[in-house]
Amino acid sequence: MKSRNLLILLLALALGAAACGSDGEGTVEAAPLIVVDGSDATDAEPPDADASVDEPDADATGTPAEQTNEELALEFTQCMRGEGVDLADPAVNADGSIQLFQPGANSNIDPNDPDVTDAFEVCGDLIAGASFLPGAGLDQSELEDTLLGFTQCLRDLGFDVDDPDLSGGFAGGPAGIFGDNFDPTDPANADAVQECQAAFGAGGPFGGNN
User: Fold this and answer.
1) Per-domain residue ranges for the chain?
2) Quick one: which of 109, 100, 161 has its CA closest to 134?
């Protein structure tokens, strides 16, 4: 699989799984959520011309400090909006882990929409390698093996699924990645996706990772 196609698949799966989730009374959250809100940036008061301006943090070599996970997640979200996808702001759990897609917050967005996958194509590089991404810490080969483990789990649950194949690109979104008989973004399959995401390790790929 090509690494970019794999990233898009994991983002689409995460979006679909979160859209099927809920933050209502019937769901117990692992930790309270704090929304990282980027909507007020343009409403801030202009700085006082006579006030000193803090420069961005830099290390001893003068290199700007790395962006925080919150900043990376917010930049990605704003990029997606710029591409026409009205993605909700990311959230931070009380333990500091990031939820790029809030549960239930993006139910109006279809991960199989070509406009959405095109936006992932444009914006994905902004968070490539971020520690909160699905499968963070795994190399390309490990991610592919893990995705095959996810597929085998679906088979063990009785689903007729093909091995995922992204070599031909990502046209059409994740709906057909596992064959014609299983759409991982279908709410009817949410329980199976939730159970099998354990193949990706603690927390799975669809929750918040540090």
Assistant:
1) 3-21+65-200
2) 100
What is the C-alpha separation between 184 and 12, in angstroms, rounded?
Answer: 9
Per-residue pLDDT of the chain (210 residues; tens, 9 = 90+): 456 777 787 788 788 777 665 444 433 333 333 444 454 433 434 445 454 445 445 445 444 467 888 999 999 999 999 999 999 999 888 888 888 888 878 888 888 888 998 999 899 889 887 888 766 667 777 877 888 888 999 999 999 999 877 665 555 566 677 888 888 878 788 888 888 877 765 445 554 444
Cα(209)–Cα(123) distance, rounded to whole angstroms? 19
Q: Which amino acid is at 70?
A: E
Q: Residue 79: which residues within 8 A CB-CB, separation 6 or more?
A: 119, 122, 123, 126
Both tokens assigned to 160: 């007729």
Contact assessment for residue 14 and residue 134, using Cβ atoms and an 8 Å cutoff: yes
> 1, 165 in Cβ contact below 8 A?
yes
CB atoms within 10 A of CB 17: 25
Question: Do strands 98-99 and 91-93 pair parallel, antiparallel, or not at all (unpaired)?
Answer: antiparallel
Burial class (CB in 10 A: 0-12, 13-18, 19+), 134: buried
